[in-house]
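Troubleshooting log. The previous run stalled partway through. Resubmitting the same four chains, unchanged.
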Amino acid sequence: MSTAPAPSSRDLRHPASEDIRLEAVLHALSDPMRLQIVRELAVGRDELTCSQFALPVTKSTSTHHFRVLREAGVIRQCYRGTAKMNGLRRQELDDLFPGLLDALLAAADRQAVRLGEG
Amino acid sequence: MSTAPAPSSRDLRHPASEDIRLEAVLHALSDPMRLQIVRELAVGRDELTCSQFALPVTKSTSTHHFRVLREAGVIRQCYRGTAKMNGLRRQELDDLFPGLLDALLAAADRQAVRLGEG
DNA sequence: CGCTTCGTACGATAGCCATCGTAGTACGTC
DNA sequence: GACGTACTACGATGGCTATCGTACGAAGCG
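Second attempt completed without errors. Output:
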């Protein structure tokens, strides 16, 4: 018992797979900033630190958006040194809602191209 | 000029296909009430009147939800006598975001079963 | 121990939104 | 015209949320 981990501000709570709600996922992705984060996470297979995203908002607001994504069950976060790593919960989302994440990402890509970003 | 249609409160404005935004669609579907409406619309192939939905809210609130769905481009509404008919814009959504609507409906079904509704 | 980097916590603010109730409009029928 | 049905419009309200700034904490590096 000597290694009981003291609760810390660095403990990150994630919903269990079975607690992920479709409505919460959709709400999380209905914000342009958060949809952008998820799109960037989806292209690389590796995790990214929060600061690797060039979001047009302050750091406070970024923190907020990452937390919304985490609490909805879309991403998983953990600390590595001073950095905070972010990764898509792809496997769990695919198990819960087969095909949904791919369809969402494809839809976002398609719209980005259509609106002249691509 | 005798047949110039006077603008009326019964004119319903719908976004054109190219003005439908993924974020707006996701936001529209992130409300449990509206997701339920869309699920019920999806099972039947016919249009339904507003009053055919047994929603646990007042009629005012229903009107609000149907309008959000229409303005997001998810449903198409038109009057038939005193009734207002509602239909999914399935073809247009499939053209814009192939596979998305099906994946969303499948995800909603799956979650309903998982949560013990089915 | 300082210093830097990275992210958090907290409070404030402004805007959006789900809900309701009441009053009203449009249509069909008698 | 009178009545009923179906839905709307408007205003209110309470809650949520995206944004910011400032101050702080945790880890690494010299």
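Takeaways: The beta strands of chain A are 48-49, 75-80, 83-88. Residues 17-109 of chain A form a domain with the Arc Repressor Mutant, subunit A fold (CATH 1.10.10.10).
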